[in-house]
Give the backbone structure.
Amino acid sequence: MGVQIEVDQLTMRYGDVTAVDGISFTVAPGEFFGLLGPNGAGKTTTLETIEGLRSPTNGRVSVAGRDPARREPDLQRRIGVQLQSSAFFERLTAVEQLQTFGAIYGVPAARLDELLEQVGLTEKATAQVEDLSGGQKQRLSIACALVHDPDVVFLDEPTAALDPQARRNLWDVLRGINDSGRTVVLTTHYMEEAEELCDRVAIVDHGRLLELDTPGALIRKLDAATRIGLAAEAIALEDARGLPGAESVRLDGSGLVIQTREPATVLAELGRREALEGLSVSKGTLEDVFLDLTGREYRA
Ligand SMILES: Nc1ncnc2c1ncn2[C@@H]1O[C@H](COP(=O)(O)OP(=O)(O)O)[C@@H](O)[C@H]1O
Ligand SMILES: [Mg+2]
């Protein structure tokens, strides 16, 4: 596997504030890479440095082996950027926005129709941007970032402020962009989103890289307990506490929750006692990884 993006000991200071503090990672061609962290973690600063919008205070960044801060046109053509706050031209329709961006690169009209289709906005082509929903605006700004057919696409919190349905719809669009062979670098503060979309995830906080791995490996490394849920009447609380392998048992609004690192033992015993009513089993999530790394609730 080659290297599409290399970030080496990147440090960024704004006056007294160290926004990024010695972060290193690489992204392979075609990878879906996530920068995950709470507000203020340094995600946007890292991304904007890779995009060539900022020059590092210290350290080095390269994209396709070149320095993005030099803003060479042939490198610019290969990257597509969706900024955290996207601005549109006023009083233009969706398709006119795209045409305006397309004209800069001499993109044919057929390609613009294809793009609208790809982001699910064909029916909104002639709608004023002001009349689009939050999710539709995000999809339009992604289409604008793709207009010149870049190899590498940067998306800064594309699903922030979207409702869960619109977020999921956008996930399909993002997956499609990566499936077409592009490298995607996404920032998000939604763990679930990183877990769902990313091949690898860098967890950052206070400008530092805390962990970097596949979501699955991060979760396995954490060795989070399995949660076994049961209907409250499935088994008496005292009996559940006595089950071999049960680490903790509590009663919450929806029933009994047993935490265990030996789910097979607990489940076998529950089966033997015919105490499986309302059974659900869930493993740890990236949310648990973050809590474990930082020792605190997620600041969304
Ligand atoms: N232009 C700026 N001037 C001063 N401080 C900034 C600037 N941009 C960001 N910061 C600070 O740098 C830190 C990281 O910000 P940012 O990269 O935007 O984080 P994130 O995208 O993870 O929310 C924060 O403490 C933020 O307040
Ligand atoms: Mg940000």
In short: The chain has two domains: 5-220, 225-282. The domain at 225-282 is CATH 3.30.70 (Alpha-Beta Plaits). The pocket of adenosine-5'-diphosphate (ligand 1) is lined by residues 14, 17, 19, 37, 39-45 (CB under 6 Å). The first helix runs from residue 43 to 50.
